[in-house]
Amino acid sequence: MRIAVAGAGAFGEKHLDGLKNIEGVEIASIVSRRLEQAQAVADKYGAPHATTDLDETLARDDVDAVILCTPTQMHAQQAIACMNAGKHVQVEIPLADSWADSLAVDAKTRETGLTCMVGHTRRFNPSHQYLHGKIAAGELAVQQMDVQTYFFRRKNMNAKGEPRSWTDHLLWHHAAHTVDLFAYQAGRIVQANAIEGPKHPELGIAMDMSIQLKSETGAICTLSLSFNNDGPLGTFFRYICDNGTWIARYDDLVTGREEPVDLSGVAVSNNGIELQDREFIAAIREGREPNSSVGQVLDCYRVLGDLERQLEAAR
Fold this sequence. Notes:
- It is a single chain.
- The chain has helices spanning 10-19, 35-45, 54-58, 75-84, 99-112, 126-136, 170-186, 272-286, 294-314; strands at residues 2-6, 26-31, 50-51, 65-68, 88-92, 116-119, 142-150, 189-196, 208-215, 220-226, 234-241, 244-249, 252-255.
- It is of the alpha/beta class.
- The strands form 2 sheets. A 7-stranded mixed sheet has the order 8-9-10-7-11-12-13, covered by helices on one side. It has a 6-stranded parallel sheet with strand order 3-2-1-4-5-6, sandwiched between helices.
- α2 links the parallel β2 and β3 (50-51).
């Protein structure tokens, strides 16, 4: 399986680190906005080709699939371009930054029959996998999820502290993780509300946001998001269930009383990004729909589109 990675920033390297652990995978090409960065990452991971032009990579016959770790605003257009070139594609979250573009990617997936998967990593973190297994087995049901997504990003920086060429977004990027996970664990979302704080004078985006969700099972979710938080960073999930309480912190899980949960037998790795990439590769090899396919996560973007309309109406 010969993979190209577009986007050589912080998340691109996380995927490349995960791909190193998957048997039979070769890195065929690295695409980045700056050629020197693309070449440096290609050298580090043994890729024979580096470029600033995605189309150049898509024209190569030694590329089977592409992982897009590019700016949010480019995801939908680039995913469609990959499939038009006959390449399987994994799009890092979010699939798009509008409901219309999400539908366009879904239509192209159906038209081509190619594997198109979205990087909803929470479905793959061992912590959430562990609880999903219990939910699927009927051992517990979610009553409420309380989620905090907190960063300190008052400047346009990426996860490595490097300047970004684009602006991140709390709703279409960071809320997408929780909106999809809540539906994955508790059922289709039937009610959603959102409010936002003031916009940053330079970045032009809301720096704080609060979202409420309700699923068809009656479960509720409260999501707080901030780029203003100067404290513990990341996303923390509290599952309040009919048969226990758990707190998930990425790949780790504790009970509501902070007792560690052994996740060693949940998956072949404790790295959610690697597990996500393993699913992408396996789905292509086996000719099946992957977990987190466009079709499976599409409803998340319906909800995000509804929330965006609510926020626009209140501005």
